[in-house]
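Design review, sub-item: ligand-bound model
Attendees: FS, YL, KQ
YL presented the inputs for the DOR complex:
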Amino acid sequence: MAITIDAPLDMHLHLRDKEMLKRVAPLSSDSFSGAIIMPNLVPPITTKEELISYKNRIKEAIGEDNFTPYMTLFFKPTYTKEFLESIKDELTAIKLYPAGITTNSEGGVSGFNVEELRPTLEAMSELEIPLCIHGETNGFVMDREAQFVSIYEMLATNFPKLTIIMEHITTKESVEALDRFENLYATITLHHLMITLDDVAGGMLQPHLFCKPIAKRPEDRDALRRVALSGHPKVMFGSDSAPHPQDAKESCGCAAGVFTAPIALQVLTQLFMEHSTPENLQAFISDNAQKIYKNITVPRKSVVLEEKPFTVPDKYGTVVPMYAGEKLKYSIREIK
Ligand code: DOR
Ligand code: ZN
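KQ shared the predicted structure:
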């Protein structure tokens, strides 16, 4: 049986820079219509010049592919309304990282003092620029996301007109917060729909499944599956596909990130065909995002998948993907 997905969108993607960018960008741009591009480079993207120059490097890397990189800035509480007005047409969202919480986030926010954040967040509300947040405290690793829910609530209450996207949610607490605040939305990754902490560290340590936020308990994954598979209108697919060279993952001091870009459509199709419907897959992978992000235009593309085994390559360049060497049930037949 063939399944067609219209205009797949990846609302949370790491493309990196230089050789890695050239290697991984085409793996998204061939099958996706667009993606929200994360700004956690070294140094992070904080100026208009850096943002435009990065967008051009991405365009060069994807060649002729019909794909829009939706650009983001690395959040700073010092951005003024004038600055944001001057850059508004170039960007789609601003990404906030708590300081030091994940890869290249050292320059992020500490303390979450609402008055310190107010000028920038009010300007973003007025200009209708969505705020994407990596929601983790620096508490105990399994509790970081649940502890951050009170910060989401504080932001959602203080800035009711701001579109706030809880990135890569992994817990039932975040799922519950979604329905309490009109302006809270979420992305969910492929890997958090598929694995729990047991898959990472229950047997021999699996560095290629180590990421931030860390995968949680079965009941958390169940909560994520419930909203994703039902096509809940406030959740959308964001892979958080985060390539690191094999030696940075298979080492003492393993880098956080799971690389899923080239297998995401195949695995999501299998998951939805087994537990849901093609309509809900379409909602999760494109339609919801187009309603939540009112400021994007989406290139036309249709991806036809069929029930035919696809063996995941062991590596893409120096990067080991999730399910490396394993046989998936669905493969991409055609991209129109
Ligand atoms: O596991 C992760 N890797 N989580 C993030 O939030 C960032 C990402 C990366 O950039 O490698
Ligand atoms: Zn990320």
